[in-house]
TrEMBL record, chain A:
It is found in: Cell membrane; Membrane. Pfam families: BPD_transp_1 (PF00528). GO terms for cellular component: plasma membrane. Residues 226-246 are annotated as: Disordered. Keywords: Membrane, Transmembrane, Transmembrane helix, Transport. It comes from Micromonospora arborensis. This is ABC transporter permease. Residues 31-215 form the ABC transmembrane type-1 domain. The chain crosses the membrane at residues 35-56, 68-90, 97-116, 148-173, 185-211. Its main location: membrane. PANTHER family: GLYCINE BETAINE/L-PROLINE TRANSPORT SYSTEM PERMEASE PROTEIN PROW, POSSIBLE OSMOPROTECTANT (GLYCINE BETAINE_CARNITINE_CHOLINE_L-PROLINE) TRANSPORT INTEGRAL MEMBRANE PROTEIN ABC TRANSPORTER PROZ. Belongs to the binding-protein-dependent transport system permease family. It is a multi-pass membrane protein.
Automatic annotation (TrEMBL), chain B:
Pfam families: BPD_transp_1. InterPro entries: ABC_transp_perm/SBD, MetI-like, MetI-like_sf. Keywords: Membrane, Transmembrane, Transmembrane helix, Transport. GO terms for biological process: glycine betaine transport; transmembrane transport. PROSITE patterns: ABC_TM1. SUPFAM superfamilies: MetI-like (SSF161098). It is found in: Cell membrane; Membrane. This is Quaternary ammonium transporter. The keyword Protein biosynthesis does not apply. Belongs to the binding-protein-dependent transport system permease family.
Length: 246, 228
């Protein structure tokens, strides 16, 4: 016990070992896996949720469906979906089922925000656009979509942070990612692997918080200044805030 | 990457089997019991911590920002990471799972209770003061009863997400139904076991949610009377 015997000291030692970074299955490998899985899942979620949400918002229908989807996914345990999907896809293990499972959890915030984003557009702006002779499709593309961008960005941030957080659970189904470092630590046992466990936790938490901060900045950037202030003053509830945990 | 669906292919490994449920009823019941007790204890503790915190944030406005910000940061930390921070200190027992679950439930409850307290109309507060209510009397007689909808929303959200989150406790060996899901996964993808546990998880969330709605109706008789 000459080396630090408390978990945090062990974690510092573990992180400072260059081999733990560059080994196969080391931190860099796991980080790459984590980011790839998350990016694919968020992209898949956007592909499904944004068109659907924008369209439903444009029609002004399906608000009940949006709420239902959000509530249903809140109740489904991530672990269950992660284990069931490899069975559905006969490929068994590997990346596809994990990406699909994570995408399912990305859908509610993306869908809810796309829907709300279109619905909150000022009816007077819509009337004006209609008076100028815009058709339904043009209205959606030229008026509703641009005005919904801040909401889309908010949904994207929520979804991305949640997927990055949930991707840590992919390690339970041998899907790789940073969670694997924690799992391996538990495999060794807390006495010997405590440092690795804490180090893995720091990496996973750090990545999630970093994503939150960076995407929060992006959200501010794409929100035009007058809308920023207006939204704060009006205090509109953001549906994304209510959905999801990982 | 093949997308061949296999849901009908395998007669020896059905999606659901009463045989499995009958043969393993003891294990399943024990898992449900652990799951429900972890959820119940976690939400109860979270409520006991969250209510005073929310009242603090309501009474002293400058505290509201920091309280919400700190619980927001905790909420952003992935569950697996949170368990990883706690486990080396508290070991692989139910305590680790409980602490993690409580930390998560906190934010959902605090945020909704604060919102509930803040929407108490200021005229009502002034009327209460005019009638001679002190700070505590006003809190228990006026503010908290009027904030019940917010409190209930928070507790319901926290309960449903806690039920889902308990499964992550598998990491330290106390995941309730998650234990069955994980065992089914390791046991050569035993679908009946995974499916039974997953369905029970969702069912537990729905049942607890309905129970809370019922309790809310009972403690706020005026809300249903007004609706009618």
């Amino acid at each position: 016990m000459t080396v630090a015997s408390n978990p945090i000291g062990q974690a510092v030692v573990w992180i400072n070992d260059p081999l733990n970074w560059t080994n196969p299955g080391g931190m860099l490998d796991r980080l790459g896996e984590h980011l790839t899985i998350s990016a694919l899942a968020v992209a898949l979620g956007c592909l499904v949720a944004w068109p659907l949400g924008l369209w439903l918002g444009h029609l002004g229908r399906g608000g009940g469906l949006v709420v239902l989807v959000s509530n249903a996914t809140l109740a489904i345990p991530t672990l269950a979906l992660l284990t069931i999907l490899p069975v559905v896809f006969a490929s068994g293990f590997g990346r596809t089922p994990v990406v699909v499972a994570l995408a399912v959890f990305a859908v509610p915030p993306l869908l809810a925000n796309a829907y709300t984003g279109v619905r909150q557009v000022d009816p007077e702006a819509l009337d004006a656009a209609r008076g100028m002779g815009l058709s339904g499709g043009q209205l959606l593309r030229r008026v509703e979509l641009p005005l919904a961008v801040p909401y889309l960005a908010a949904g994207f941030r929520t979804a991305a942070v949640q997927v990055i957080a949930t991707a840590a659970l992919a390690s339970f189904v041998n899907g790789g990612g940073l969670g694997q470092i924690i799992r391996t630590g538990f495999g060794i046992g807390i006495a010997a692997g405590g440092g690795q466990i804490v180090a893995g936790g720091v990496l996973v938490a750090g990545l999630a918080l970093l994503a939150e901060v960076v995407l929060g900045g992006v959200e501010r950037l794409v929100t035009p200044r007058p809308l920023r202030r207006g939204r704060q003053r009006a205090g509109r509830p953001r549906p994304a805030d209510a959905t999801g945990s990982a | 990457m093949s997308f061949r669906l296999s849901y009908r292919a395998d007669p020896g490994n059905p999606w659901f089997s009463w045989q499995y449920v009958r043969d393993n009823s003891d294990t399943i019941l024990a898992a449900v019991r652990e799951h429900a007790s972890l959820t119940g204890r976690a939400v109860l503790i979270a409520v006991l911590i969250a209510l005073p915190l929310s009242v603090l944030a309501y009474w002293f406005r400058p505290l509201a920002g920091p309280i919400l910000a700190v619980s927001g940061v905790v909420y952003t930390i992935p569950s697996l990471a949170l368990f990883a921070f706690i486990a080396p200190y508290l070991g692989t027992g139910t305590t680790t799972v409980l602490v993690g679950l409580v930390l998560y439930a906190l934010l959902l409850i605090v945020r909704n209770v604060v919102a509930g307290l803040n929407q108490v109309p200021p005229e009502v507060g002034e009327a209460a003061e005019g009638m001679g209510y002190g700070r505590w009397g006003r809190l228990f007689r006026i503010d908290l009863p009027l904030a019940v909808p917010g409190i209930v929303t928070g507790v319901r959200l926290a309960t449903v997400s806690t039920v889902a989150l308990v499964t992550v406790g598998v990491l330290v060996g106390h995941g309730g139904l998650g234990q069955l899901i994980f065992a089914g996964f390791q046991n050569n993808l035993y679908k009946a076991e995974i499916m039974t546990a997953a369905l029970l998880c969702v069912a537990l969330a729905v049942v607890l949610d309905l129970l809370l709605v019922l309790v809310a109706r009972l403690v706020t008789p005026w809300s249903t009377r007004r609706a009618r």
